[in-house]
Amino acid sequence: MMKRKSYRRLWTVVILLCFISAMNPTSVGAFSDQIIQKGATGDDVVELQARLQYNGFYDGTIDGVFGWQTYWSVKEFQEEFGLEVDGFVGTDMKTMLEKATEYDKEFVHRMLNEGRKFTYYGGVDKNIQKGPVGSKEKPIPPAEKPSPEARKEAPAPKQPQPEAPPEDPAAEETPAEKPPETPDEAPAPEEPSPSPEVDVPAPAEEEPVPQDDDINIEKAINVPEGYSDNDIRIMAQAVYGEARGEPYVGQVAVAAVILNRVESSTFPNTASDVIFEPRAFTAVADGQIWMDPDETSRKAVIDAINGQDPTGHALYYFNPVTATSDWIWSRPQIKQIGKHIFCK
Amino acid sequence: MIGLLVAGVIGTAFWGFNENQEKNAVMMQSENNYQRAFHDLSFQIDLLHDEIGSTLAMNSKDRLSPSLAEVWRITSEAQNDLGQLPLVLMPFSKTEDFLQKIGDFSYEHAIKDLDQEPLTDENYEDLEMLYGQAEEIQRELRQVQSHVLNDQLRWLDVDKELQAQEEPMDSPIINGFKNMDEKVEGFKEVHFGADSSGVSANDEEINENLNGDEVDEDKAMKIAEDFLDLDSLEGIEMTETGEGLAYEAYSLMIPDIEHGTTITMDITKKGGHPVWMLNERDVEEESLSLNAASEKAKQFLKKNDYTNMQLVESKQYDNVGVFQFVEMEDDVRIYSDEIVLEVALDEGDIIGFEGFAHLAHPEGDRDTELTMSREEAEEELNPNLQIREHHVAIIENQQGEEVLCHEFYGTKGNDTFRVFINAENGREEIVEKLANPEPVYQ
Predict the structure, then answer these.
(1) Which residues of A touch B313 (CB under 8 A)?
(2) Which of A265, A301, B218, B371 has the smallest set of CB atoms within 10 Å of its CB?
């Protein structure tokens, strides 16, 4: 019974989608006016990646971060269509993309919000391109990408091989049988269907995505060269444990001290080794490092990694009120920021 | 009633006993960790001494490289052990420096092609000297070790003493390490190659390369006013940096009245160059694209007479754009001479400036004549790499020397790599995988 219902719903959706796309061959461009360049994040980048994937230029993850892979795709596109090959996505390229491709913002954003692994190749039914909810976290067999020859011919949507369904032993249904929407238990709303041909619940069952996407889509983020997000998190915890309540500059300075120690020959060579070196930081000794860091300390760490160092080049710091060690007082001092004196 | 009390007392005693047991177990655990690191350190130093000895006695060149590599590995193990001992707040840096030097020395020679560049007499003298010095460290360390073993000294006591920061500290372990460090201080320095392997700290390089006349406080304030494009410096606070910094500088704290925050910056005394600047204000919702922000950054550099800088990398972190600029000389990117700017994406103002590398590497007459053409350099690349972009650049190689290179960006699969090919001898100076955006794990 459940199964049949699923089928019915699937068909409804498929028919409706055909209907919608027939009515509306090119969706309205949602690109904002900005020139999109490498390093940018946000909705425009999501759209750019989806549109590039639609006609086979981009086979990476649609994650909303303009990284290297997106950059090369943009350049290939520009070369193919005689635009200036500079990696900047300006008005010309956006117009061209909007003409040549479709962009179903709601679909893409829903996939992102539900954390699904998905692709967006043009000419392939979207419903077989998405993985189950949360599938992004699971390892997925590599997607078969459209052959480069296929894309050379025209900007029109090509028919790439759809991605192989994720081999998830836990999932009993194959993606084709899977209802396109979230759990079956969700009762379908008893609304009159918008289309007269079908008298079953309409796709309104899918939770609508808020139109103004306030929740910034951050399915991926930029990280400074050489550091993972987890490294940044550990350092942010150390900074928070050591220097919360200090002025922001003081927090950047503490993060800079950690990094200066990594560079220095007399200290360990990785950030976590420096932080957990016995007796190096009081916040580690008394466990304050295990508190949740706030956004400020994270920002301070990223600033420091990007090269900011309010101390010049300090290796130590201490609180003059509590420090009793003669040795620490004997270090050549650089300056005081907030409660801490920074020294060499 | 009495029964209840007795039960209570017994219960408490039992609970206390359990707690104590647990505490002891945890303490034993951390003591054992310290002991393992310490005895392992001693073992590695023994090995180090022996291995340098065998290097010296060695005749065949084929065995020399592996042996030097082994020395390098052992020093790194020893450094790792040191990092696990509670020695941070102790004068023990000389010994750590010494280990680093042995490591640098052996690494430098291990990676060399010894057929073409055999060890010189001077190198052998250095090795001989390091051999002797390693022996002394070994002897000192063994003495501490035998103390620890015979008198059953505990590292936790050292830890406690350091924690209490009582002066003078007179645990035999601490004294032993102190003695060792004093010995090392008297050691002769190793002769490194022409460049002292890039160990000099950033601030010393800045100090050597500062130009211009000394500026006084008023002048520094004027510089800050122009640099930040402010109308008034009302409420400014100014201090001078201490002796810990190789160059002298003014630290300025300027109230940002519009945002109710503070702008902090350093300006060098000599020449009045801004070193870094930071506005700690919160950035509101973005209204500016990264591209528009990069234009603001370029304008800022132009206005402040940083000419010939080219934008090479931009990244958006939430509502802040971070832009890396490098100096251009005859269309060559000078990577060692960089400036990083941070632009707030709400109002487009500059909220961060980092000019350390720019001050440490002044403009100079760099040789930008290419010996190898791009095509020749391309042949040195891995054929599996699909070349996407090419530039000419000057970078600092691992020995800290500036070298002229062909810079290639290439892709292999979904990853992007950057390869620097030495434009003189075709050597791959640096090959690095560039960071992909990181998915958010939840």
Answers:
(1) 39
(2) B218
Domain match, B229 and B183 both: no
Residues A126 and A119: their CA atoms lie apart, in Å, by 8
Whether this prediction's pTM lies above 0.80 is answered by: no
Q: Contacts of residue B317 in chain A, CB cutoff 8 Å? A: 221-222, 299, 302
Does residue B160 share a domain with residue B46? yes
User: Does B282 share its domain with B395?
Assistant: no
Which residues, including other chains, have CB under 8 Å from residue A64's CB and lie 6 or more apart?
Answer: A41, A42, A43, A45, A46, A49, A112, A217, A218, A219, A220
How far A17 CA lies from chain B's nearest CA (Å)? 30
Residue B442 falls inside a structural domain: no
On chain B, the residues whose CB falls within 8 A of the CB of A328 are 89
DSSP B123-191: HHHHHHHHHHHHHHHHHHHHHHHHHHHHTT--HHHHHHHHHHT-SS---HHHHHHHHHHHHHHTSPPP-
- The residue segments making up the domain with residue B384 are 374-433
Chain A CB within 8 Å of residue B162 CB: yes
Domains in chain B, number: 3
CA quadruple B254, B256, B261, B265: dihedral sign: negative
Of B335, B360, B385, the domain-final residue: B360
> By the 8 A CB rule, do B138 and B78 touch?
no
**Structural domains of chain A, ranges and CATH numbers in brackets:** 2-205 (1.10.101.10), 229-343 (1.10.10.2520)
Query: Does B157 lie in the same domain as B47?
Result: yes
For residues B113 and B52, membership in a common domain is answered with yes
Per the domain annotation, does B199 fall within a domain? no
Domain boundary among B134, B162, B190: B190
Closest residue in chain A to residue B282, using alpha carbons only: A296
Side chain identity, residue B266: D
pLDDT (tens digit, 0 to 9) for every residue of chain A, 344 residues total?
A: 444 555 555 455 444 444 444 444 344 457 888 888 888 888 888 888 888 888 888 888 888 888 888 999 999 888 888 888 888 888 888 888 888 887 877 777 777 777 667 777 776 666 666 666 655 554 444 444 444 444 444 444 444 444 444 444 444 443 444 444 444 444 444 444 444 444 444 444 444 444 444 334 446 777 777 788 888 889 999 999 998 888 899 999 999 999 888 888 778 888 888 888 887 888 888 888 888 888 889 889 988 988 888 888 888 898 888 876 777 888 888 888 888 999 88
Same domain, B145 and B86: yes
Q: In terms of domains, do B320 and B254 share one?
A: yes
How far is residue A300 CA from its own chain's centroid?
A: 21
* Pairing mode of beta strands B261-268, B249-256: antiparallel
Is B280 domain-assigned? yes
Note whether B36 and B178 are same-domain residues. yes
Best B30, B159, B261, B278 member to test A by mutation, with max A CBs in 10 Å, is B278
